[in-house]
Amino acid sequence: MITLSAQLRDRLAQPLKIGQFEVKSRVLQAPLSGVTDLVFRRLVRRFAPDSMMYTEMVNATGLHYVKELPKIMEVDDNERPISIQLFDCRPDFLAEAAQMAVEEGADTIDINMGCPVNKITKNGGGSSLLRQPEVAEAIVRAVVESVKVPVTVKTRIGWNDNEINILDFARRMEAAGAQMITVHGRTRAQGYNGPAKWEWIARVKEILSIPVIANGDIFSVEAAVNCLEFTGADGVMCSRGTMGYPFLVGEIDHFLKTGEKKPAPSPIARLQCAREHLWMLYEYKGDRGVRQARKHMTWYSKGFPNAAELRGKLSVIENVHQGMEYIDAAIAELMALGEANLTTDAEPMEPVLV
Ligand SMILES: Cc1cc2nc3c(=O)[nH]c(=O)nc-3n(C[C@H](O)[C@H](O)[C@H](O)COP(=O)(O)O)c2cc1C
Predict the structure, then answer these.
(1) Is 125's C-beta closer than 6 angstroms to any atom of ligand 1?
(2) Do residues 233 and 299 share a domain?
(3) Binding of FMN: at which residues (predicted)?
(4) Residues comprising the binding site for FMN?
Protein backbone atom coordinates (compact mmCIF):
# COMPACT_ATOMS: atom_id res chain seq x y z
CA MET A 1 0.00 0.00 0.00
CA ILE A 2 1.20 3.44 -0.83
CA THR A 3 0.65 6.44 1.38
CA LEU A 4 0.97 10.09 0.59
CA SER A 5 3.16 11.82 3.14
CA ALA A 6 1.80 15.06 4.58
CA GLN A 7 5.04 16.70 3.51
CA LEU A 8 4.59 15.75 -0.13
CA ARG A 9 0.95 16.69 -0.12
CA ASP A 10 1.71 20.14 1.30
CA ARG A 11 4.58 20.66 -1.10
CA LEU A 12 2.35 19.96 -4.08
CA ALA A 13 -0.84 21.62 -2.84
CA GLN A 14 -0.22 24.87 -4.68
CA PRO A 15 -0.85 25.11 -8.41
CA LEU A 16 2.10 24.54 -10.72
CA LYS A 17 3.24 27.98 -11.84
CA ILE A 18 4.76 28.14 -15.29
CA GLY A 19 5.64 31.81 -15.50
CA GLN A 20 2.31 33.57 -15.10
CA PHE A 21 0.38 30.49 -16.13
CA GLU A 22 -1.09 28.28 -13.42
CA VAL A 23 -1.92 24.61 -13.74
CA LYS A 24 -4.03 22.87 -11.11
CA SER A 25 -2.28 19.55 -11.47
CA ARG A 26 1.27 18.33 -10.86
CA VAL A 27 0.90 15.46 -13.29
CA LEU A 28 1.51 16.08 -16.97
CA GLN A 29 0.76 14.02 -20.06
CA ALA A 30 3.96 13.79 -22.12
CA PRO A 31 4.19 14.61 -25.78
CA LEU A 32 4.33 11.30 -27.67
CA SER A 33 4.80 11.39 -31.39
CA GLY A 34 2.20 9.24 -33.13
CA VAL A 35 0.19 8.94 -29.91
CA THR A 36 -0.89 12.19 -28.23
CA ASP A 37 -3.13 13.53 -30.95
CA LEU A 38 -6.31 15.40 -30.16
CA VAL A 39 -8.27 12.15 -29.80
CA PHE A 40 -5.88 10.61 -27.28
CA ARG A 41 -5.76 13.84 -25.31
CA ARG A 42 -9.56 13.93 -25.11
CA LEU A 43 -9.47 10.52 -23.45
CA VAL A 44 -6.71 11.46 -21.02
CA ARG A 45 -8.49 14.73 -20.23
CA ARG A 46 -11.66 12.89 -19.25
CA PHE A 47 -9.81 11.35 -16.30
CA ALA A 48 -7.42 14.25 -15.70
CA PRO A 49 -9.30 17.48 -16.37
CA ASP A 50 -6.69 19.71 -14.71
CA SER A 51 -3.56 18.27 -16.27
CA MET A 52 -1.29 19.83 -18.82
CA MET A 53 -1.21 17.96 -22.12
CA TYR A 54 1.25 18.21 -24.98
CA THR A 55 0.75 17.81 -28.69
CA GLU A 56 3.04 15.58 -30.68
CA MET A 57 6.23 17.40 -31.66
CA VAL A 58 5.82 19.70 -34.66
CA ASN A 59 8.59 20.49 -37.14
CA ALA A 60 9.17 24.25 -37.31
CA THR A 61 10.94 24.09 -40.68
CA GLY A 62 7.94 22.27 -42.12
CA LEU A 63 5.66 25.00 -40.82
CA HIS A 64 7.88 27.72 -42.25
CA TYR A 65 7.69 26.34 -45.77
CA VAL A 66 4.16 25.02 -45.80
CA LYS A 67 2.53 27.73 -43.65
CA GLU A 68 -0.38 25.42 -43.08
CA LEU A 69 -1.40 23.99 -39.76
CA PRO A 70 -0.64 20.24 -39.69
CA LYS A 71 -3.22 17.99 -38.09
CA ILE A 72 -0.83 17.16 -35.24
CA MET A 73 -0.91 20.82 -34.21
CA GLU A 74 -4.70 21.05 -33.94
CA VAL A 75 -6.11 21.59 -30.48
CA ASP A 76 -9.73 21.54 -29.36
CA ASP A 77 -11.35 24.95 -28.83
CA ASN A 78 -11.68 24.53 -25.11
CA GLU A 79 -8.71 22.27 -24.59
CA ARG A 80 -6.92 23.69 -21.57
CA PRO A 81 -4.21 23.58 -20.35
CA ILE A 82 -2.36 22.65 -23.53
CA SER A 83 1.20 23.03 -24.72
CA ILE A 84 2.27 22.76 -28.33
CA GLN A 85 5.67 21.16 -28.70
CA LEU A 86 8.01 22.27 -31.46
CA PHE A 87 11.34 20.94 -32.67
CA ASP A 88 14.04 22.34 -34.89
CA CYS A 89 17.46 23.95 -34.61
CA ARG A 90 16.70 27.31 -36.23
CA PRO A 91 15.77 30.02 -33.75
CA ASP A 92 13.98 32.12 -36.41
CA PHE A 93 11.84 29.23 -37.65
CA LEU A 94 11.00 28.23 -34.11
CA ALA A 95 10.01 31.79 -33.22
CA GLU A 96 7.71 31.89 -36.22
CA ALA A 97 6.24 28.46 -35.44
CA ALA A 98 5.65 29.52 -31.84
CA GLN A 99 3.49 32.39 -33.03
CA MET A 100 1.38 30.00 -35.10
CA ALA A 101 1.10 27.74 -32.08
CA VAL A 102 -0.16 30.56 -29.90
CA GLU A 103 -2.74 31.47 -32.54
CA GLU A 104 -3.91 27.87 -32.45
CA GLY A 105 -4.44 28.19 -28.69
CA ALA A 106 -1.24 27.01 -27.00
CA ASP A 107 -1.00 28.02 -23.35
CA THR A 108 2.73 27.34 -23.40
CA ILE A 109 5.31 26.53 -26.06
CA ASP A 110 7.55 23.57 -25.38
CA ILE A 111 10.80 23.06 -27.26
CA ASN A 112 11.92 19.50 -27.82
CA MET A 113 15.57 19.08 -26.89
CA GLY A 114 15.43 15.39 -26.09
CA CYS A 115 14.34 13.41 -29.14
CA PRO A 116 16.97 10.70 -29.81
CA VAL A 117 15.83 9.74 -33.34
CA ASN A 118 18.60 10.03 -35.96
CA LYS A 119 16.40 11.75 -38.51
CA ILE A 120 15.89 14.59 -36.01
CA THR A 121 19.36 14.78 -34.42
CA LYS A 122 21.26 14.74 -37.69
CA ASN A 123 19.44 17.95 -38.61
CA GLY A 124 20.47 19.57 -35.36
CA GLY A 125 17.18 19.16 -33.50
CA GLY A 126 16.00 17.16 -30.47
CA SER A 127 18.70 15.82 -28.16
CA SER A 128 21.54 17.02 -30.40
CA LEU A 129 20.90 20.46 -28.89
CA LEU A 130 22.46 19.11 -25.69
CA ARG A 131 25.70 19.20 -27.64
CA GLN A 132 25.12 22.73 -28.90
CA PRO A 133 24.03 24.60 -25.79
CA GLU A 134 24.63 28.00 -27.42
CA VAL A 135 22.15 27.14 -30.17
CA ALA A 136 19.68 25.91 -27.55
CA GLU A 137 20.03 29.20 -25.68
CA ALA A 138 19.51 31.19 -28.86
CA ILE A 139 16.37 29.18 -29.56
CA VAL A 140 14.88 29.83 -26.14
CA ARG A 141 15.71 33.53 -26.34
CA ALA A 142 14.17 33.88 -29.81
CA VAL A 143 10.99 32.05 -28.88
CA VAL A 144 10.61 33.95 -25.61
CA GLU A 145 10.87 37.18 -27.54
CA SER A 146 8.33 36.15 -30.14
CA VAL A 147 5.40 35.11 -27.91
CA LYS A 148 3.74 36.20 -24.69
CA VAL A 149 3.03 32.72 -23.36
CA PRO A 150 5.62 30.85 -21.27
CA VAL A 151 8.30 28.89 -23.09
CA THR A 152 9.44 25.56 -21.68
CA VAL A 153 12.07 22.96 -22.56
CA LYS A 154 11.98 19.17 -22.49
CA THR A 155 15.33 17.45 -22.58
CA ARG A 156 17.47 14.52 -21.45
CA ILE A 157 20.39 14.34 -19.00
CA GLY A 158 23.05 14.28 -21.71
CA TRP A 159 24.20 12.75 -24.98
CA ASN A 160 25.79 9.64 -23.44
CA ASP A 161 27.32 8.53 -20.14
CA ASN A 162 30.50 10.46 -20.88
CA GLU A 163 28.62 13.62 -21.71
CA ILE A 164 26.08 14.17 -18.97
CA ASN A 165 25.78 17.95 -19.06
CA ILE A 166 22.26 18.51 -17.79
CA LEU A 167 23.32 20.71 -14.87
CA ASP A 168 25.06 23.27 -17.05
CA PHE A 169 22.42 22.91 -19.77
CA ALA A 170 19.47 23.42 -17.43
CA ARG A 171 21.09 26.53 -15.93
CA ARG A 172 21.57 27.92 -19.40
CA MET A 173 17.93 27.25 -20.34
CA GLU A 174 16.72 29.06 -17.24
CA ALA A 175 19.04 32.01 -17.89
CA ALA A 176 17.81 32.20 -21.50
CA GLY A 177 14.24 32.59 -20.31
CA ALA A 178 12.71 29.11 -20.10
CA GLN A 179 9.92 29.07 -17.52
CA MET A 180 9.96 25.32 -16.84
CA ILE A 181 12.15 22.36 -17.72
CA THR A 182 11.19 18.73 -18.03
CA VAL A 183 14.07 16.33 -17.58
CA HIS A 184 13.87 12.80 -18.96
CA GLY A 185 16.40 10.98 -16.80
CA ARG A 186 18.11 9.12 -19.62
CA THR A 187 20.91 9.97 -22.01
CA ARG A 188 20.37 10.09 -25.74
CA ALA A 189 22.48 6.94 -26.08
CA GLN A 190 20.16 5.09 -23.72
CA GLY A 191 17.15 5.67 -25.94
CA TYR A 192 14.39 4.23 -23.80
CA ASN A 193 16.51 1.48 -22.27
CA GLY A 194 17.70 1.00 -18.73
CA PRO A 195 16.26 2.80 -15.74
CA ALA A 196 15.82 6.56 -15.80
CA LYS A 197 18.44 8.21 -13.58
CA TRP A 198 16.23 10.24 -11.30
CA GLU A 199 19.29 11.34 -9.28
CA TRP A 200 20.14 13.80 -12.05
CA ILE A 201 16.65 15.25 -11.90
CA ALA A 202 17.11 15.78 -8.15
CA ARG A 203 20.35 17.64 -8.84
CA VAL A 204 18.69 19.85 -11.45
CA LYS A 205 15.92 20.65 -8.99
CA GLU A 206 18.51 21.76 -6.44
CA ILE A 207 20.04 24.38 -8.70
CA LEU A 208 17.09 25.92 -10.58
CA SER A 209 14.38 28.35 -9.53
CA ILE A 210 11.94 27.52 -12.33
CA PRO A 211 9.76 24.40 -11.96
CA VAL A 212 11.45 21.10 -12.77
CA ILE A 213 9.31 18.22 -14.04
CA ALA A 214 10.56 14.67 -13.65
CA ASN A 215 10.15 12.28 -16.55
CA GLY A 216 11.12 8.66 -17.11
CA ASP A 217 9.66 5.40 -15.78
CA ILE A 218 6.46 6.83 -14.33
CA PHE A 219 4.30 3.76 -14.91
CA SER A 220 2.17 3.82 -11.76
CA VAL A 221 0.94 5.91 -8.83
CA GLU A 222 3.68 4.32 -6.72
CA ALA A 223 6.40 5.28 -9.19
CA ALA A 224 5.08 8.84 -9.35
CA VAL A 225 5.12 9.23 -5.57
CA ASN A 226 8.58 7.66 -5.26
CA CYS A 227 9.90 9.91 -7.99
CA LEU A 228 8.44 13.07 -6.44
CA GLU A 229 9.85 12.12 -3.03
CA PHE A 230 13.24 11.20 -4.43
CA THR A 231 13.77 14.11 -6.79
CA GLY A 232 11.92 16.92 -5.02
CA ALA A 233 10.58 17.78 -8.50
CA ASP A 234 7.60 20.08 -8.97
CA GLY A 235 5.65 17.52 -10.94
CA VAL A 236 5.85 14.30 -12.92
CA MET A 237 5.27 13.65 -16.59
CA CYS A 238 3.83 10.31 -17.69
CA SER A 239 4.85 8.89 -21.05
CA ARG A 240 4.87 5.24 -22.12
CA GLY A 241 2.75 4.33 -19.11
CA THR A 242 -0.18 6.09 -20.77
CA MET A 243 0.02 4.11 -24.00
CA GLY A 244 -3.06 1.89 -23.93
CA TYR A 245 -3.76 3.28 -20.48
CA PRO A 246 -5.11 6.85 -20.70
CA PHE A 247 -6.21 6.54 -17.06
CA LEU A 248 -2.72 6.94 -15.60
CA VAL A 249 -2.41 10.74 -15.41
CA GLY A 250 -5.84 10.99 -13.74
CA GLU A 251 -5.02 8.18 -11.31
CA ILE A 252 -1.85 9.89 -10.15
CA ASP A 253 -3.46 13.32 -10.00
CA HIS A 254 -6.32 11.94 -7.92
CA PHE A 255 -3.92 10.29 -5.50
CA LEU A 256 -1.80 13.41 -5.08
CA LYS A 257 -4.91 15.48 -4.37
CA THR A 258 -6.75 13.08 -2.08
CA GLY A 259 -4.35 10.39 -0.87
CA GLU A 260 -6.81 7.79 -2.21
CA LYS A 261 -5.94 5.27 -4.84
CA LYS A 262 -8.63 4.80 -7.46
CA PRO A 263 -9.41 1.17 -8.25
CA ALA A 264 -7.79 0.16 -11.55
CA PRO A 265 -10.26 -0.03 -14.43
CA SER A 266 -11.46 -3.54 -15.15
CA PRO A 267 -10.41 -5.26 -18.38
CA ILE A 268 -13.91 -4.61 -19.71
CA ALA A 269 -13.64 -0.90 -18.92
CA ARG A 270 -10.27 -0.80 -20.66
CA LEU A 271 -11.69 -2.49 -23.74
CA GLN A 272 -14.65 -0.11 -23.77
CA CYS A 273 -12.14 2.71 -23.75
CA ALA A 274 -10.23 1.05 -26.61
CA ARG A 275 -13.47 0.77 -28.59
CA GLU A 276 -14.20 4.44 -28.12
CA HIS A 277 -10.61 5.37 -28.98
CA LEU A 278 -10.85 3.42 -32.24
CA TRP A 279 -14.14 5.04 -33.18
CA MET A 280 -12.90 8.53 -32.35
CA LEU A 281 -9.76 8.04 -34.41
CA TYR A 282 -11.88 6.86 -37.32
CA GLU A 283 -14.16 9.89 -37.05
CA TYR A 284 -11.22 12.27 -36.81
CA LYS A 285 -8.86 10.81 -39.43
CA GLY A 286 -10.88 8.27 -41.44
CA ASP A 287 -9.11 5.10 -42.55
CA ARG A 288 -5.71 6.59 -41.74
CA GLY A 289 -6.96 6.87 -38.17
CA VAL A 290 -7.86 3.18 -38.19
CA ARG A 291 -4.37 2.25 -39.32
CA GLN A 292 -2.96 4.43 -36.54
CA ALA A 293 -5.38 2.82 -34.09
CA ARG A 294 -3.88 -0.65 -34.60
CA LYS A 295 -0.96 -0.01 -32.26
CA HIS A 296 -3.20 1.65 -29.64
CA MET A 297 -5.56 -1.34 -29.76
CA THR A 298 -2.73 -3.78 -29.13
CA TRP A 299 -1.56 -1.74 -26.14
CA TYR A 300 -5.03 -1.92 -24.59
CA SER A 301 -5.22 -5.68 -25.05
CA LYS A 302 -3.33 -6.84 -21.98
CA GLY A 303 -4.00 -8.52 -18.69
CA PHE A 304 -7.03 -10.72 -19.40
CA PRO A 305 -7.70 -14.19 -20.82
CA ASN A 306 -7.03 -14.45 -24.57
CA ALA A 307 -5.52 -10.96 -24.68
CA ALA A 308 -2.67 -12.16 -26.91
CA GLU A 309 -5.10 -13.52 -29.47
CA LEU A 310 -7.03 -10.25 -29.50
CA ARG A 311 -3.77 -8.31 -29.86
CA GLY A 312 -2.90 -10.34 -32.94
CA LYS A 313 -6.26 -9.63 -34.55
CA LEU A 314 -6.35 -5.94 -33.71
CA SER A 315 -2.84 -5.37 -35.02
CA VAL A 316 -4.02 -5.99 -38.57
CA ILE A 317 -7.56 -4.59 -38.68
CA GLU A 318 -8.56 -3.40 -42.14
CA ASN A 319 -11.42 -1.14 -41.14
CA VAL A 320 -13.21 0.31 -38.15
CA HIS A 321 -16.07 -2.20 -38.18
CA GLN A 322 -13.75 -5.15 -38.06
CA GLY A 323 -12.01 -3.61 -35.05
CA MET A 324 -15.30 -2.96 -33.28
CA GLU A 325 -16.41 -6.52 -33.94
CA TYR A 326 -13.25 -8.00 -32.40
CA ILE A 327 -13.47 -5.76 -29.36
CA ASP A 328 -17.19 -6.43 -28.87
CA ALA A 329 -16.58 -10.16 -29.05
CA ALA A 330 -13.78 -9.88 -26.48
CA ILE A 331 -16.00 -7.85 -24.17
CA ALA A 332 -18.81 -10.41 -24.50
CA GLU A 333 -16.36 -13.19 -23.71
CA LEU A 334 -15.13 -11.37 -20.60
CA MET A 335 -18.70 -10.69 -19.50
CA ALA A 336 -19.53 -14.36 -19.84
CA LEU A 337 -16.53 -15.18 -17.64
CA GLY A 338 -17.79 -12.70 -15.05
CA GLU A 339 -15.84 -9.72 -13.74
CA ALA A 340 -15.20 -11.53 -10.47
CA ASN A 341 -13.06 -14.10 -12.25
CA LEU A 342 -10.94 -11.56 -14.01
CA THR A 343 -7.80 -9.92 -12.84
CA THR A 344 -8.57 -6.25 -12.38
CA ASP A 345 -4.96 -5.14 -12.13
CA ALA A 346 -3.48 -4.08 -15.39
CA GLU A 347 -0.34 -6.05 -16.24
CA PRO A 348 2.75 -4.11 -15.28
CA MET A 349 3.25 -1.69 -18.12
CA GLU A 350 6.39 -2.71 -19.85
CA PRO A 351 8.41 -0.23 -21.83
CA VAL A 352 7.32 -0.34 -25.44
CA LEU A 353 10.18 -0.21 -27.87
CA VAL A 354 9.72 2.21 -30.72
C1 LIG B 1 6.33 6.53 -29.03
C2 LIG B 1 7.05 7.66 -28.36
C3 LIG B 1 6.95 8.93 -28.90
C4 LIG B 1 7.58 10.01 -28.27
N5 LIG B 1 7.42 11.26 -28.79
C6 LIG B 1 7.94 12.33 -28.14
C7 LIG B 1 7.70 13.65 -28.61
O8 LIG B 1 7.02 13.89 -29.62
N9 LIG B 1 8.25 14.67 -27.89
C10 LIG B 1 9.00 14.47 -26.77
O11 LIG B 1 9.47 15.42 -26.15
N12 LIG B 1 9.23 13.22 -26.31
C13 LIG B 1 8.71 12.17 -26.96
N14 LIG B 1 8.90 10.90 -26.46
C15 LIG B 1 9.62 10.73 -25.17
C16 LIG B 1 8.65 10.69 -23.99
O17 LIG B 1 7.89 11.87 -23.88
C18 LIG B 1 9.39 10.46 -22.66
O19 LIG B 1 10.33 11.48 -22.48
C20 LIG B 1 10.08 9.12 -22.60
O21 LIG B 1 9.26 8.10 -23.11
C22 LIG B 1 10.52 8.76 -21.18
O23 LIG B 1 9.46 8.53 -20.31
P24 LIG B 1 8.95 7.02 -19.93
O25 LIG B 1 10.16 6.25 -19.46
O26 LIG B 1 7.95 7.24 -18.85
O27 LIG B 1 8.36 6.46 -21.16
C28 LIG B 1 8.34 9.81 -27.09
C29 LIG B 1 8.46 8.51 -26.58
C30 LIG B 1 7.83 7.45 -27.18
C31 LIG B 1 7.96 6.08 -26.59
Answers:
(1) no
(2) no
(3) 85, 154, 184, 239-240
(4) 85, 154, 184, 239-240
Query: Which of 258, 277, 310 is the C-terminal boundary of a domain?
Result: 258
Q: Are residues 230 and 298 in the same domain?
A: no
Report pTM.
Answer: 0.95
Residue nearest to atom 5 of ligand 1 (CA): 32
Longest dimension (CA), the chain: 62
257 in Cβ contact with 39 (< 8 Å): no
Average pLDDT over residues 302-328: 97
What phi and psi values does residue 81 have, to the nearest 5 degrees? Answer: -80, 145
Binding residues: 85, 154, 184, 239-240
Residue nearest to atom 6 of ligand 1 (CA): 32
- pLDDT of 341 > 70? The answer is no
Is the CB–ligand 1 distance for residue 184 below 6 Å?
yes
Residue 351 is assigned to a structural domain of this protein: no
Identify whether 346 is part of a domain. Answer: no
In a domain, 348, yes or no: no
Q: Are strands 16-18 and 21-23 parallel, antiparallel or unpaired?
A: antiparallel
Q: Do 135 and 227 belong together in one domain? A: yes
For the Cβ of 190 lying below 6 angstroms from any atom of ligand 1, the answer is no
Domain span at residue 276 reads 267-341
Give catalytic residues, as residue numbers. 115
How many domains does the chain fold into? 2
| Contact predicate 296/277, CB 8 Å | yes
